[in-house]
C-alpha cells in the first residue's frame, strides 16, 4: 500500500490558455496530495483563470508587456507565488520562458508538461513539428525546467501511436488524456519525495520507491 501523504504540497500553476491541465489538477490532486494555492497567467483573459476562480484559487496576471523586461516580470511573479506559500511551480500550457533568476527562487521545483517525446520537438508548435517530420508515434513529457527550452531532466513520458494523423487538433485530442494523467502523477511523486536526480547522470530522474 502506498503511504498517504500527510501534508498537502502547496503548488502554483502557470497558465496562458484554456487550462485543461489546470482543471485536471483541480479534479485530482487538489485537496488531496497537493493544494493549488495560486494560478498565474501571462494572458489577462485566459479561460484558465475562470477555472481557478471557480474553485476559489487566488489568481494573478503577469503579462510580459507590462514589465520593463522578463527579469522584472519574473521577479514580480515569483514574489507573488512565494507570498502564497508555493513550494512547487507547475507550467501547464504556460507559453513564456522563465529566466534563471525565477528558477533559482524555486530550485529543483519547477516542472512542465510538453506535447512531445523530448528531446524530440522542443519549443513552440511541437505537434506541428512532429507532423511535419512525419512521425507515427506522438507523446507527452513531464520534465523539470532548466534554463534551456524544454531541456530539463525527464520525469515521466507516455506515447501513443497515430499512424495516419495529419491534423494538429487530432493529435492534441489524443495527447490530452496523457497530459491529464501524467501531470498529476508527477505532482504526487514530487509530494511523496519520490523524485531524485541521478548523481551519476544529472539528465536522469530516478523514481524512488
Question: What is the tally of beta strands?
Answer: 9
CATH C-level class: Alpha Beta
Biggest β-sheet strands, sense, barrel: 7 strands, mixed
CATH topology: Rossmann fold
The CATH homologous superfamily is termed Formyl transferase, N-terminal domain
The run of helices and strands is: EHEHEHEHEHEEHEE
Helix-strand makeup class: alpha/beta
CATH architecture: 3-Layer(aba) Sandwich
Level of helix content? 25-40%
Structure characterization notes:
Helix content is 33%, strand content 23%. The protein has 209 residues and is α/β, with parallel strands linked by helices. The chain has a single domain (9-207), classed as Rossmann fold (3-Layer(aba) Sandwich), CATH 3.40.50. The strands form two sheets. It has a seven-stranded mixed sheet, with helices on both faces. A two-stranded antiparallel ribbon has the order 8-9. Helix 1 (20-27) packs parallel to helix 6 (168-191). The radius of gyration is 17 Å and the shape is globular. The model is unreliable at 1-5 (pLDDT under 50).
Short description:
This protein is of the alpha/beta class. It has helices at 20-27, 47-54, 70-83, 100-105, 126-133, 168-191, and strands at 9-15, 34-41, 59-61, 88-91, 110-114, 137-144, 154-161, 195-197, 205-207. The chain has a single domain (9-207), classed as Rossmann fold.
Amino acid at each position: 500500500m502506498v503511504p498517504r501523504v500527510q501534508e498537502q504540497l502547496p503548488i502554483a500553476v502557470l497558465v496562458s490558455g484554456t487550462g485543461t491541465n489546470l482543471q485536471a489538477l483541480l479534479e485530482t490532486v487538489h485537496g488531496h496530495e497537493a493544494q493549488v494555492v495560486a494560478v498565474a497567467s501571462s494572458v489577462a483573459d485566459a479561460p484558465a483563470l475562470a477555472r481557478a476562480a471557480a474553485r476559489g484559487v487566488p489568481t494573478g496576471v503577469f503579462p510580459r508587456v507590462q514589465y520593463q523586461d522578463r527579469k522584472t516580470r519574473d521577479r514580480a511573479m515569483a514574489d507573488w507565488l512565494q507570498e502564497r506559500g508555493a513550494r512547487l511551480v507547475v507550467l501547464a500550457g504556460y507559453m513564456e520562458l522563465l529566466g534563471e533568476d525565477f528558477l533559482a527562487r524555486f530550485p529543483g521545483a519547477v516542472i512542465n508538461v510538453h506535447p512531445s517525446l523530448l528531446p524530440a520537438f522542443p519549443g513552440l508548435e511541437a505537434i506541428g513539428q512532429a507532423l511535419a517530420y512525419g512521425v507515427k508515434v506522438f507523446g507527452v513529457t513531464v520534465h523539470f525546467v532548466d534554463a534551456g527550452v524544454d531541456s530539463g531532466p525527464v520525469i515521466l513520458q507516455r506515447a501513443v501511436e497515430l499512424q495516419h494523423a495529419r491534423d494538429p487538433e487530432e493529435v492534441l485530442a489524443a495527447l490530452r488524456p496523457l497530459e491529464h494523467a501524467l501531470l498529476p502523477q508527477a505532482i504526487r511523486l514530487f509530494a511523496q519525495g519520490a523524485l531524485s536526480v541521478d548523481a551519476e547522470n544529472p539528465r536522469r530522474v530516478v523514481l524512488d520507491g
